[in-house]
Amino acid sequence: MPAFAADAETWMNNLAKAGQSHSYSGTFVYGRDGSFSSHALWHRVEGKAVRERLLQLDGPAVEVLRVDGRVECSTEAFARDTEGRGWQDTNFDAKALSQWYEYRLIGDSRVADRPTVAIAVLARDQHRYSFELHLDRETGFAVKSLMLSEKGQLLERLQFTSFEVGTIAPTDLQPRGECKALEVPQLQKQAATWRADWLPPGFRLLDSSLAAGDSKAPVTFLSYGDGLARFSVFIEPLQGEQVHDARSQMGPTVIVSKRISAAGGDVMVTVVGEVPLGTAERVALSVRDDAEKAGQ
Question: Where are the beta strands (DSSP E) in 149-202?
């Protein structure tokens, strides 16, 4: 068993470097909540820079161009995922993650007519999801990924139907549709007084900022992660508005909103991310304003 564990961690190290080491193209199917969509992907490594174009092949012809994981332009205004999606965009520390996830070598498999090795990435607690990954033996890239709930239910599937390694022509990275530059909201980079008083083990604060909300009241944004899983917390002053608590889930993504009383007035705390509902609710209920303690 120790030998199997070592092999699994070696493959996870290969996966962590795959997106920055190889140029490739392919098509994949993405599914969650019983709905499926197909996509084409072109991924080009130029020295230390990575350029990527994603095209949805069915339904709306949504295109996204990313540079080093950040969205440069998109045909859809809602495509605001600045970090990208999928294991191809994940740059992680496999050894550090092994504190929160157990790696197991499942065996050989075959995906998109390519030999692969199957790895289980198992959450060590109930506060994060587990994965089954099928890694291309040549590149270490995840050509198939299954995300599983804490109860073992399938939440999300991403599986390539074709995958080719090699040079990507500059023309392949040129969007054919109307690709609009992403409008980034003006954020005030300053220390937020709000924080989550409880976090799942291994999660830490990644970013915090302030931005104008729909009501022009400043909205606090907090981002947390464990090196793989991530969630965001938004704290918005209600200014007398009547709102209700809410919770929803679409595939692996949960949204939990809780009304919290504070000295300066009630606020709405919303947690969005790929963590179990119970974890998101516990985080939302733990949000506190350090400025209140300082004023006491």
Answer: 154-165, 180-181, 194-196
Q: Which residues are bridge partners to 157 per DSSP?
A: 31, 146
Q: What is the pLDDT of residues 194-210, one digit of tens each?
A: 899 999 999 999 988 88
Nearest to 225 by CA among 192, 196, 186, 250: 196
pLDDT digits 0-9 by tens, 45-73: 988 888 999 999 988 888 989 888 788 88
- Which of 159, 181, 203 corresponds to the end of one domain? 181
Cβ atoms 71, 85 nearer than 8 A: no
Domain region containing 253: 194-295
> Tokens standing for 14?
């290969």
How far apart are the C-alpha atoms of 122 and 141, rounded to whole Å? Answer: 19
CATH number at residue 285: 3.30.200.100
Residues 6 and 74 in one domain: yes
- Report whether 153 contacts 276 (CB < 8 A): no
What is the DSSP pairing of strand 246-250 with strand 253-260?
Answer: antiparallel
- Tell me, yes or no, whether 156 and 209 share the same domain: no
